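Record now logged underneath.
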Amino acid sequence: MTQVRVSVALAILYQGDRLLMQLRDDNPAILYPGHWGLFGGHLEVGETPLEGLQRELSEEIGHCPDHLEPVGQYSDDLVIRHIFASPLTVDLSELVLGEGWDMAWVTAAAVQRGWNYSDRAGEERPLGDIHRRILGDFLT
């Protein structure tokens, strides 16, 4: 039986040298439970990666930047990840977390270290491996 790869679209949202990340729910039924990841998600039937990302950002943080620049694609046996980037021009206080456990700014040092502190969890939580790789490539 062949497994069909799913397509997702993810956003690198940044202000200066800070990157906005979502602390994923601590739910074992999802990829990277309890890890920091990028905002975005699965594409619905008929959606382009950009359309899917715009929908996901509206659902997850109540805001979608005016322009999302495609920066690459990361694929493995299970997932095709379409990556977009945009500066975030609104204050974090204007965003409403609609999905996930927490959101926070992450520094390049935290990406390199692979861990970031969560106020809501009250502890350092790991970055998802693929998200760390994507951000590491973006930062270089």
